[in-house]
Amino acid sequence: MTQTADSYSAEDIQVLEGLEAVRKRPGMYIGSTGPTGLHHLVYEVVDNAVDEAMAGHCTQIEVEILEDGACEVRDNGRGIPVGTHHQYENLSAAEVVLTVLHAGGKFGGDGYKVSGGLHGVGVSVVNALSSKVEVEIQRDGKLHFMSFKDGGEPDQKLVVTGETSEDTTGTTVRFWPDIKIFKEGIDFRANTLLERFQMMAFLNKGLEITFIDNRNTGKNKKTSYKYDGGIKDFVQHVNTSKEALFETVGFFQDQDDEQEVEIAFQWNTGFNSDGIHSFANGISTTEGGMHEQGFRTALTRIVNKYARDNGQLNKSDDGLQGEDIREGLTAIISVRLREPQFEGQTKSKLGNVSIKSLVEKATGEHLRDWLEENPKEAKLITQKAVQAARARIAARTARDATRRKSALDGAGLPGKLTDCSSKDPEESELYIVEGNSAGGSAKDARDPRTMAILPIRGKILNVERSRIDKMLNNTEVQALISAIGAGFGEEFDLEKIRYHKIVLLADADVDGSHIRTLLLTFLYRQMKELVLNGHVYIAQPPLFSTEVKKSKIYLKDEHARELFLKENPKHKADFGRLKGLGEMNADELWDTTMDPEKRTLLKVTVEQASIADEVFSKLMGEDVESRKTFIQTNAKDVRFLDI
Questions:
Q1: Which of the listed residues 392, 421, 443 is the one where a domain comes to its end?
Q2: Are residues 149 and 285 both part of a single domain?
Q3: Which of 434, 588, 591, 614 is catalytic?
Q4: 143 vs 621, which has greater pLDDT?
Q5: Based on the domain organization, do 562 and 529 belong to the same domain?
Q6: Would you say the C-alpha torsion 440, 444, 445, 450 has a positive or negative sign?
Q7: Backbone angles phi, psi at 63, to 5 degrees
Q8: Which domain, by its residues, includes 570?
Q9: Out of 254, 343, 509, 529, which one is annotated catalytic?
């Protein structure tokens, strides 16, 4: 070995002071420096105001996007404390909150019993990743002001700039995201913010959240959310595009010294058994956790007992399973606790054992009473569960027949699957390709070591409108389940997936979009963990091609073509519109869509499962008017659509 001149001594150990660490590794604090991280800045500021609301001191939050792209968040809470901080003699408490990581009223003391925010780094991270921040505080009859620049450098120390009435309190934070950090752009997307604010308003009964977008000159400049029914209104909202089994929305709440729970529920006529959406301190727990476990256990026990006591189940009948009872159920579980423990790969699973006991006890007592007090609704619930059980038994018969057939066939993989040679799931990719002709091109184009091809003929079954027994009789659905190799529904096991990338490859047209939506609906409803853990991708085949100096250039869509023309104003050459995957030869398909060195893949993510539930119900359910409204509302943002 040859020695190098590189040194490694005490002088080489660097300590990043204050907010410098955030600017050095922003992804550690906000997830990414793309659109997700950009919007996370807004949530950090708004979460502080929501904490005030949960503590009973805030009723109004206003979020305003200014004309220059800055974001301003105003609340009528108590105002950040302005007195000198006991650990920093030369700084006020407000300056500490803005400049010191992990500083705030949620780390012990009596500031907050419960609080939101996942990482606890809060507004100081917003300061670190902004080119400019201004803060106004109304408190103790005075108006205070301070400002920062260039990632948290003090610009104006806290000063009193005026007087207010003693009962006027609140905080205003204005920040300008730093383009040097968010290189993909600093434009906030209104729909992304509105979805989050609406959810926050549902979870905090009576809190009014107003969004004002000064970039929008039309009538929709201002939107307000306020729900006096809280999570009962949330359930009705999720069920809007579904047919409710009955009009009543059930609700109960309970608490002990350290934690509290609210649950709202209503059944619909659909067949989805994954309609439970849970939250802890306002944070969406998409992977569930102890609070969901407690609810599911008590729900199964109580409905079974009610069905037997009232003659819907005979003593000789097998009991109803949890999935039978949950078919068509939409439920919101919202818990608040002093020290939430988040687990799982995405920190979205609640691990506190104590909350399981509270939720199970509360559900056992209150749901039993609700069923007794609402016999008409209770009968409809148990009848639907019994029908679901019959369908489950029929599906098991179909599943067993499929397994027997697979065993006779040998490996049990679908005949039309062209598998890859690698047996390592981490490097293996499954391309689900629209049409046999496109499948042929993809087979010729692929890297046979790591890329498997499964052609899908036409549009697969819409599982949003089908029970599991009908679904299992569909050839294309059978092929998908067999190829992925991890089961489906309640039996799905993420550890058994044969590929860590499931890539949907369809034409860049309306039919292709429909097929992608059908496939996404199936994967989200029957293999949800596959989506939640980031294993599902959408390929981006180009829509246009043109020639530049005898070289062929491919452009993804109309937006890419317009951008190309702006950058090449003297180009008048023709743009050929690519008609479909089946008409591309193998070389074209590899160069434009499948080559890992050149391709663009969109990862399908679900930040808020309740929103995804609502979107899939609107797009694939029976309510035509809801689907039409959704498409009209989102048409202008279609190239940013991120389910």
A1: 392
A2: no
A3: 434
A4: 143
A5: no
A6: positive
A7: -115, 125
A8: 544-577
A9: 509
